[in-house]
C-alpha cells in the first residue's frame, strides 16, 4: 500500500522536554485519520512537523510524502506539496483584508514576484459566494477580517486550505468555538474531503466528532502512540473507555 | 471541489456591498483623513501669509528640503508596518557619505561613488536586520546601539573632518540629483516622487509588501502559513539602509559639503512623518500616500509658521517666532493622530 504520508520513528524535543518519542504515523489517500490524545500528548507537535513548522530532532526519524523521502521541509515547501492546515488558532491576520488572508503565504503572482491583486480579489469573491456561506452583510473581499465572527473566521481558514487543491488537509481542533450548525457543516465538509479522494488528519478533543468522521483513530499519549483502531472495529463506548484508561494509566488495556 | 453547502447564496450579493461611498471611506479612510489635515494646514498658511503662500518661491524651497528625509520616511514606513523600528538611519546617512567621498577621492568617478554609498548603506541596514533576526534583539534596542556605533564610526574614520563637494558643483551628475529643472523645480523632488512610486509598488503590488503587512499584523500566523519572516525582515532593513544613504547623498550634494554630523535632526522629523501619515506603531497598517503627505506637512510647518508671523485671536496678537515651531509640531501630531485613530475606528466598522 502506498501512503500519501508516512512518518517513521519521529522524535522531537524542546530542550529537556521530549514532545514526541519514536512516533510512527501514516495516512493513505482518501483516508480520514483522527488524532486523539490529552493536552500535551504531542498532537500539535506531530502535525507541525508534517506542515514543516517544526523539524524533527537530528536523526529523529524519516518522513515520506507519496513515497518520496523528504528532509528539511519548510512550511512553504509543505504547502507546495499539497499539505494544507486549518490551525486551532486560525492563523489569520486580523487587520488585513479577506483576500490577503486567503492568499497568505501563497500569493498569486505574475512575473518577478509581483502579485495579481485583481485575480486574488476575483477568486476570493468566487469563494465567498460559492463555498464560505457568508450570511453577514458586511463581507467583501476588501473587508477586514477583524470584523468577522468566530464561525466566519473558521470558514476563511477552511476555504483557504481548500483553495489550493490540497492532497492532505489537516484540521487542528476545527470545532472549537463553533455553533452546533457550524459544527455539522464542518463534519459534512470532512466527508466531502474523503469523497474527493483527498486525505484528512482530524484532531479534536471531542471523541464523538472524531469517531463520526474518521476511518481510523490514532491515540497519542505522552509523546508516543498508545494505540490505533479502525472505527469500524470498535464502538464509541469502547473507544471512550480506552481513552479514559490511557489518560489515567498510560495503558490502553 | 464542493464544500460546505451555502444556503444563503442568493441573498448575499446584494447585501455584501454597502453603499459605494461607505466602501471607499472604509478602504481609504486613513488617506482621506491625512489629506484633509494637509489641506487645512495649507489653507491656514495661505490665510495667514498670502504674500508668501500664493507665490511659487516658498514651494521651490519646500521641494528642495523635504526630499532629504522623504526618501527615508517612505521605506521607513515598510519597517514600521512590519512592526519594527529603526533609529539608526541618520547615522547610515553619514556612513553612506563616508563611502561616497572615499571612493570619489580615489576614483574621481561620481557614479562609482554613488553606487558605493548605496551599497554601504544597504550593508549597514542588512547588518541591523541580521542583529534583529538572527540574534533576536528587538529592533528598537538593536538600532539604538547601531545608531551610536555608526555615528562613532563616521567621526573616527573622518577624524571629525568634513569633505567639500564643491568640485562636483557644475557636473551633470550633480544636476541630475539636486539641480533645478527648468530653473525652478528641484530635481530631488522628482527623486522623492520616484522613490514614493517604487515603494508603493513594492508594498502594494509585490509579494514582499504583502508579507510586510502580514508580518506586522501577526507574525505567528505568517509563520504558520509559510511566509519567510526572517528574510522579509532583513531585506526591509537593507532597503532602509540603502534609502538612508541616498538621502544623505542628496542632502550633501545640495549643500556641496559632507558634514560629519549629517543626519542629525532627521530622526524625529522622519519618524513623525511616518506616524502622522497614519502608519500604526503596532504594525500591520500604513500607507505610502499617508507618509508622503506626512512629509509635506512636517516639512512645511517650520517655514510656514515663520512666514505667518503673527496670529490674531479675539484681539489677542501672538507673534509667532521660530520658537513656536516645536509647540505647533507637537500639537499637529497629537491632534491629527488622535483624529485618525477615531476616524479609522468609525470607518472600519
Plain-language structure description:
With 253 residues, chain A is an alpha/beta fold. Chain A has 2 domains: 1-82 and 166-253, P-loop containing nucleotide triphosphate hydrolases (Rossmann fold, 3-Layer(aba) Sandwich); 93-164, no CATH class. Chain A is 34% helix and 24% strand. Chain A contains 8 helices and 10 strands. In chain A, the strands form 2 sheets. Chain A has a 6-stranded mixed β-sheet with strand order 6-7-8-3-9-10, with helices on both faces. In chain A, α6 (180-195) links the parallel β7 (168-172) and β8. The longest helix of chain A is centred in the middle third of the chain and has 16 residues, at 117-132. The two termini of chain A are 29 Å apart. In chain A, 46% of the residues are buried. The model of chain A has no long low-confidence stretch (mean pLDDT 88). The longest helix of chain B has 29 residues, at 20-48. In chain B, a hairpin with a 2-residue loop joins β5 (310-313) and β6 (316-319). With 349 residues, chain B is mainly alpha-helical. In chain B, α4 (56-81) packs parallel to α9 (187-205) and α5 runs antiparallel to α6 (110-134). Chain B contains 15 helices and 6 strands. A two-stranded antiparallel ribbon of chain B has the order 1-4. A two-stranded antiparallel ribbon of chain B has the order 2-3. Chain B has a single domain (30-336), classed as Orthogonal Bundle (ABC transporter involved in vitamin B12 uptake, BtuC). The model of chain B is unreliable at 1-17 (pLDDT under 50). The chains are: A alpha/beta (253), B mainly alpha (349). Chains A and B meet through α2, α4, α5 and α6 of A and α1, α2, α10 and α11 of B.
Amino acid at each position: 500500500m502506498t501512503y500519501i504520508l508516512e512518518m517513521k520513528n519521529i522524535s522531537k524535543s524542546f530542550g529537556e522536554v521530549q514532545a514526541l518519542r519514536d512516533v510512527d504515523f501514516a495516512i493513505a489517500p482518501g483516508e480520514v485519520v483522527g488524532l486523539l490524545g490529552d493536552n500535551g500528548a504531542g498532537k500539535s507537535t506531530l502535525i507541525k512537523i508534517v506542515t514543516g513548522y517544526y523539524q524533527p530532532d537530528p536523526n529523529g526519524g524519516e518522513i515520506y510524502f507519496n513515497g518520496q523521502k523528504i528532509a528539511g521541509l519548510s512550511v512553504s515547501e509543505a504547502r507546495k506539496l499539497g499539505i494544507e492546515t486549518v490551525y486551532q488558532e486560525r492563523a489569520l491576520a486580523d487587520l488585513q483584508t479577506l483576500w490577503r488572508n486567503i492568499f497568505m503565504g501563497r500569493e498569486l503572482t505574475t512575473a518577478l514576484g509581483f502579485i495579481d491583486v485583481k485575480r486574488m480579489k476575483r477568486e476570493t469573491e468566487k469563494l465567498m459566494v460559492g463555498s464560505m456561506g457568508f450570511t453577514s452583510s458586511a463581507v467583501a473581499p476588501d473587508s477586514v477580517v477583524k470584523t468577522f465572527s468566530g464561525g466566519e473566521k473558521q470558514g476563511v481558514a477552511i476555504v483557504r486550505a481548500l483553495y489550493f487543491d490540497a492532497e492532505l488537509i489537516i484540521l487542528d481542533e476545527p470545532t472549537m468555538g463553533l455553533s452546533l450548525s457550524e459544527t455539522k457543516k464542518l463534519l459534512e465538509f470532512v466527508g466531502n474531503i474523503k469523497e474527493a479522494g483527498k486525505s484528512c488528519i482530524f484532531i479534536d478533543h471531542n471523541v464523538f466528532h472524531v469517531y463520526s468522521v474518521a476511518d481510523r483513530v490514532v491515540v497519542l499519549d505522552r509523546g508516543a502512540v498508545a494505540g490505533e483502531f479502525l472505527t469500524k472495529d470498535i464502538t464509541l463506548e469502547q473507544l471512550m473507555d480506552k481513552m479514559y484508561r490511557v489518560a489515567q494509566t498510560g495503558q490502553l488495556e | 471541489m464542493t464544500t460546505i453547502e451555502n444556503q444563503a447564496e442568493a441573498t448575499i450579493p446584494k447585501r455584501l456591498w454597502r453603499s459605494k461611498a461607505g466602501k471607499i471611506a472604509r478602504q481609504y479612510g486613513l488617506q482621506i483623513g491625512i489629506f484633509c489635515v494637509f489641506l487645512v494646514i495649507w489653507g491656514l498658511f495661505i490665510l495667514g501669509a498670502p504674500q508668501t503662500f500664493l507665490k511659487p518661491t516658498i514651494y521651490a524651497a519646500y521641494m528642495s528640503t523635504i526630499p532629504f528625509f522623504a526618501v527615508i520616511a517612505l521605506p521607513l514606513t515598510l519597517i514600521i508596518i512590519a512592526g519594527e523600528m529603526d533609529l539608526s538611519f541618520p547615522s547610515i546617512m553619514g556612513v553612506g557619505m563616508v563611502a561616497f567621498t572615499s571612493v570619489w577621492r580615489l576614483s574621481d568617478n561620481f557614479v562609482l561613488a554613488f553606487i558605493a554609498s548605496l551599497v554601504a548603506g544597504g550593508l549597514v541596514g542588512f547588518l541591523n536586520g541580521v542583529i534583529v533576526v538572527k540574534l533576536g534583539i528587538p529592533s528598537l534596542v538593536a538600532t539604538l546601539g547601531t545608531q551610536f556605533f555608526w555615528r562613532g564610526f563616521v567621526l573616527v574614520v573622518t577624524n571629525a573632518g568634513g569633505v567639500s563637494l564643491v568640485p562636483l558643483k557644475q557636473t551633470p551628475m550633480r544636476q541630475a540629483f539636486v539641480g533645478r529643472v527648468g530653473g525652478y523645480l528641484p530635481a530631488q523632488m522628482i527623486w522623492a516622487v520616484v522613490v514614493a512610486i517604487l515603494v508603493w509598488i513594492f508594498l502594494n503590488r509585490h509579494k514582499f509588501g504583502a508579507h510586510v503587512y502580514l508580518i506586522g499584523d501577526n507574525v505567528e500566523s505568517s509563520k504558520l502559513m509559510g511566509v519567510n519572516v526572517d528574510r522579509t525582515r532583513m531585506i526591509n532593513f537593507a532597503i532602509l539602509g540603502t534609502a538612508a544613504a541616498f538621502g544623505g547623498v542628496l542632502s550633501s550634494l545640495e549643500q556641496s559639503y559632507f558634514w560629519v554630523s549629517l543626519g542629525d535632526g532627521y530622526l524625529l522629523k522622519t519618524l513623525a512623518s511616518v506616524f502622522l501619515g497614519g502608519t500604526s506603531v503596532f504594525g500591520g497598517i500604513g500607507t505610502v500616500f499617508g507618509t508622503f503627505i506626512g512629509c509635506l506637512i512636517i516639512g512645511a510647518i517650520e517655514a510656514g509658521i515663520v512666514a505667518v508671523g503673527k496670529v490674531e485671536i479675539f484681539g489677542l496678537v501672538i507673534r509667532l517666532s521660530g520658537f513656536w515651531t516645536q509647540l505647533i509640531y507637537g500639537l499637529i501630531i497629537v491632534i491629527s493622530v488622535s483624529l485618525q485613530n477615531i476616524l479609522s475606528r468609525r470607518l472600519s466598522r
